[in-house]
Amino acid sequence: MSARRLADLDAARLDGQRVVVRADLNVPLADGAVADDTRIRASLPTIRFLREHGARVVLLSHLGRPKGAPDPRYSLRPVARALEAQLGIPVTFLADPTSDAAAAEVRHLPRGGVALGENTRFYPGEEANDPALADRFAALGDLFVNDAFGTAHRAHASTEAIAHRLKPAVSGFLLERELRFLGEAIEQPARPFVAILGGAKISGKIDLIEALLPKVDRILIGGAMACTFFKAMGLEVGRSLVEDDRVEMAARLLAAAGDKLMLPTGAMVGDRLAGDATTREVARDAIPADMAMYDIDQASVARFTEVITAARTVIWNGPMGVFETPPFDRGTMGVARALAAATAAGAITIVGGGDSAAAIAAGGLDDQVSHVSTGGGASLEFLEGKPLPGVQALDSR
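Request: output the structure for the sequence above.
Response:
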C-alpha cells in the first residue's frame, strides 16, 4: 500500500489552504475531560506541520459508538479543550461540521488556525460511507490528509468517500509511520522474525496465523486462545475459555505449523477471576478440572523470553492472560519486558495496538519498543494482508 504522503507535497502550496485532517481522536473520557491523551499527542506532528506552513487545519474524528445520532456522552468538545492545551492556541469547535455555517467558519480561520468538528459518528451516513455526507465533510477543505490508522480498515464517509472528493488526498505522518513499520515487518523482516499472539479467542486470529505462518520463524501463542489448542491436543482444560467449534481448526493449524508454533508449557490457574482468587502454576497437562487458565506460567515466560530476545523482528498482538486483573498480569508483563530487552539489543519490535498497547503503557515501556500501533483492528487486517479502504482511497505514489 504505497499512498502518497503529506511529505510528498510542495509545502509552500499549503499556505492559506483549508486542509481536512481525518485524525484518530477516539480517546477515553472521564468526568467530562480526556483521561488519556495518547492519541491526541500522536496526531500533533501532522497538525503542527500544517500550521507551520500556514494551512487552516480542520480536524474530523469519531469518538466511541454513538449509533448514528448525537449523544453528549460522546461529544468531542473535551477533546477540543485538550487540543488547545497541547497546541497553545484556541481551537474552533464546529458543533455541526456538515452545516453551511461550519464551511463558512473554516474559511475565516487564520493561517495556522485549527478547528475540530463534532463526532463524525453522530451522522448515520458516516459508517454507511454515504456520498452525500462525504460531500458535506469535503466542503470544509481544499485537500485531504488521512492520519487515522485506527479507522483505516473502515470504509466510512470521513475516511474513504471524502478521499475521492478532495485532492490531493494523502497520508499524514502518523499513518505513514504505521504503514512503514508494519509493511517493512511483513515484506522485509530482519530474521529471526517472531510473532506473539494472545487474547481470548482463536477465531479472531485464525486469518492472522495463516497469513503469518509462511513468513515468520516462530509464532508464540498465549492467552485463553492457547486453551483451544490444548483441547485440540487432547489435554484437560478445566473451566478455561475454549472455542469448541474451533478445536478442529486448531488441530489443523498445529499440524500445518509444526515447530513454528510454540504453545505455553504451563498455566497459571485460578478458582475464579479475581485478585484474591486461589491460584497456582501447573503444567499444561495438569490443569485441574475445577479451575481455569487465566495466564501463562513463569516457565513459559522464560521460554518465550529466550525466543523474543534472540529475534531481530517481533510483532506482538494480544495479551498472555487477563492482565487487567493481577496476579494474572505476570505473563503479559513478562513478554512486555522481553520486547523491551529485544529492542535494546537492536531488534525491531512492533506492538499491534489494543490490549497489547495498553499492557506496554501500563508497564511504562512505550518508549522502549520500536513502534506501538494506534490501531488494533487496522493493524490486524494489515498484517493479514487485507486491503485498508482508508489507505486505498488515497492518491498513490
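The longest helix spans residues 38-52.
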